[in-house]
Protein 1
Amino acid sequence: MISLRNIWVVAERDLRTFVNYKFMLIMRAIWFLAQIALFGLIVNKMFKPDVELAIGTSYFNFYAAGIIITLLYSTTVFIGYDIYEEADHGVIEYLLSLPVSRKELVLGRSIGGGLRSFIYVSPMLLFVLYLIGVTNLLQFLVAFISLFLFAFGVAGFSITLAVSIKSSDKFDILLGVVDALIVRLSTTLYPLVYMPNYYQAFARFNPLTFAADLFRWGAGIESTVLTNPAVAVFGIILFFSIFTFLGIILHERRLEGGGWQ
Amino acid sequence: MKAVLHILERDFRYFFRYKWWIVGMLSMSLADLFIMAVVYTRMVNPELFIENYFLFFSPGIMITALFAAAFMIGREINAEIRREISHYMLSLPIKRWKLALGRVLAGGLRGMIYTIPLLLTTLFVTFVLAGNVPSPLQMLIIILALFLISVGTSGLSITLALSTTSFEKYVTARGVIYYLLFFCSTVFYPLNLIQSVMPQFFAIIAQYNPLSCGADLARSFLLGYPPLEPVMILDLVIFALIFASLAMFAYMKIIQK
């Protein structure tokens, strides 16, 4: 039997430890501002007029919405680094000794990992929404809830990788490579129609594509180049379910027994 | 000179400890070029600014990678000051100025080593797509420009690292400088576009930004545009001289505190 209270206690702990990463949080905020205020504004004027027609808004708005999803992704994956920190300092053994089941532990961590990123990203998300303007509240609520699931899914993904690999060096490089590919092979930075076919094949099924296009749809950007919202919601639910399930299984099997490098 | 070589060797050993970081950064740079630039090439308005964005961006990514790698030394030096490893450094039978020179040069040379794969990629790309092969003299000037950027960046990063013992403050200042120089440069877009979109203050930064000068200098040899101007080389020489000297001076002062 899973106790919601136990899950919340684990999640709350992760929320509190997030403050320790204040330098990372500051860096990400500066990165976001630079991306929007410098890169986004300049690149907005660099493209053909048909880009704006295709995406149904200015490229700046399209890009700002995508950057929020990138930020949400990159702050959420940090939960994996937390696990290595804990392994380094012997905190994993302490966590295992708590009267909390393994399932509650991993669910709490996924929720905590996702929630803390969401709280961090919220002011910037509101700023982007202010820039774009929300036209349909119901659409926005659907997108907002889906983004929560997306963040929990990313946390589950990061936990799954961390406990599968058990080597901080390998995790670091793998996450770096995944980050390089998953962001660029998605619609966070550009619409699917402008990608060559061989990139489209990956981008079409990328959870970041689902999240970015859904967020744009929620903010009221109307365009045929965006992923169908129903498909995007389904994709995010699938992503969340797979990685939460995998996270639970692997967490239960691999967390004990040491072997952390 | 032997003492400086010892310092260089030490810093190179440290650099290769970050091999995973290096591989991660390289993959990001290559993904920027082979994914982002490929897609942007299909979106960029060729009538306005650039005909082939992929070609345009190729020398730019080499410069950003060089900058990021040369900047790493600052983080190490900031950590050494906080952990008082500088006391150990002072105990070495090496003159202070040689120690400082070694650190600045090491930072610069590490950046150069890291950039080699990206330089080769850029040369390959410009040869295949534009049919341009730089002459030996042009190649030498490109390498010299990369070295100047690298040493200047290493100096800038060391100066910054020594200006505060707080890691948070260092990281924040680094973030501001890092992204300002990255995005306010001609690495991603041409100068005339920046001038037409951004306020004059940012346009001036972009024009005299060493990253812009380095990227445009490489483009002038590898792509044939923009035209090479002596101010580009002068800018890089001044940048390297100022920040290498500042870093050496600051390093000699701070480790004696």
Note: Residues 21-254 of chain A form one domain.
Protein 2
Amino acid sequence: MTAYIVRRLLATIPVMVVVALFVFLLLHLTPGDPAAVIAGDDASPAEVEGIRRKLGLDLAIWQQFLIYAGNLLRGDLGTSIFSNLPVLTLVKQRLEPSLVLAVSTLVIAIALAVPMGVLAAWKARSWIDRVVMGFSVLGFAVPVFLIGYLLIYVFAIELRWLPVQGYRPLAQGIEQTARSILLPAIALSMVYMALIARMTRASMLEVLSEDYIRTAHSKGVATVVVLLRHALKNAAIPIVTVIGIGLTLLISGVVITETVFNIPGLGRLTVDAILKRDYPIIQGLIILFAGAKVLVNLLIDISYVFFDPRIRY
Amino acid sequence: MAAVVTAPAPAASRSLDWIRRNPTIVIGSAILGLFVAVALMAPWIAGDPLSFDPLNRLKRPSKEFWFGTDQFGRDVFSRVVYGTRISLIVGVSVALIATVTGLLVGVLCGYYRRIDDLVMRVMDGLMAIPAILLAIALITLMKASLLIVIIAISIPEIPRVVRLVRSVVLSVRGLPYVEAAVASGTRSRIIMTRHILPSTVAPLVVQSTYVCASAVLIEAGLSFLGAGTPPEIPSWGNVISLGRAFFQISPWIIFFPGLMLAIAVLAINLVGDGLRDALDPRIARRM
């Protein structure tokens, strides 16, 4: 088991190296002069020169790479061109809302989508199944900003149940935070729910046709127990895998959802960086998000052991 | 299914039968056809999407302005109609670029095992980056244009296609007929084009519809964030992005383009799901 974890940990290194190399090369292989593009059309030659120096573009490419790699290894994600603050500091300031949003979304999506998928598979071809499948087809098509604005319109503007936009930090009390994060989390969870419900249904359908399920039924085990303990646990691996795959969807979704709901998280940091073309921030966020995704996938790989004890590493 | 041999039915009833068996393809294609028609005939259907009309700012949907007007008095309906063009161009171009590039790289990887390891590590790395951020990084470094947006959306889609093609090539490569071709001294190029490529067609066609749908969504998302199609071009995402500030008093600026976006993506996905079921005989018709 330990050997397996170590092996999987080592396997994440080349992935992160490729990510780091990619964002580095992007800055250098992009046709045109990135310093001039970042400075904007009205910039003086001196300003362009200043940005070139800040990005390190005035050095030889191998020097730049050594500096960049050295900084990364020391945990330095670079420095914002415009605010001159370390990217890591900026990220820390904006981390809480995004993390709360992502975790709430994950909880809502799993808590609703897994039962939906189980129900759809159990009652395959019934109207329940059709409703769940219809929902999952819709969930893939309706963009998060449309769901977000619809939710704001109905629940915040018309019914006035919840705040329209904004975020209340956890320090102000968890109830306020929950009220401010509920609509964004529901909006963001739709596409994720569609993905998880679909996979749960497919995986459950396969397991439910197995002989041991019939055996369990025929010896009088309660349906709920058969569905949850006999079937769902054995159907879990593809479901857990798809939750990991969907994480990239979730991260992209966080950026858009925060913009819709005016939440000052990492998404806002991204959008501000886009407006100013502050490349070091985008670069740092990419490395961070990719790292988060790689880490979660690692945890998921390890969790397989729990779902299927036959897996021995 | 194949055991029953029926007399060849007349062409008309056979195509009717095909429609009955593949309702999703038919419905999806019909909706898509409508969007294509709207995109092609935009100048005849809609007015000028760019002209300002200060007297008619933020007007509700009415007989005159079906989808209302925005803060500059521009007709939202006209902008949505012209936006159809952008979404379709982006969707189709990204699907083509990603599929062709992915096919090329995937076949080479599956066939020449020596480059496979390196290329697949690169693909793993690219797949770890969320598509929207990868596109944003590219767009921050270049002057905004539709072409840049198309390229930026294509790059994160390529690894998925490569993985798909590679897995098909690997499974076909071990089959006796390919081994026979190798044994009889057929040149690699011929083996690849004549013996291996045909089996990638069906999964690729299905995959390209999903790439197309995701590209349309990502373009809208990028434009919504202000990192997409240049703001002077009326794309659905740009229209929605401009409507943000006035959402509480004029929600129609966001709802109509958002609705069209959802319907278009739904139609593309329906075609994709239908094709998947029709082209893959292993998947039983469950629905």
Note: Residues 21 and 282 of chain A are 14 Å apart (CA to CA).
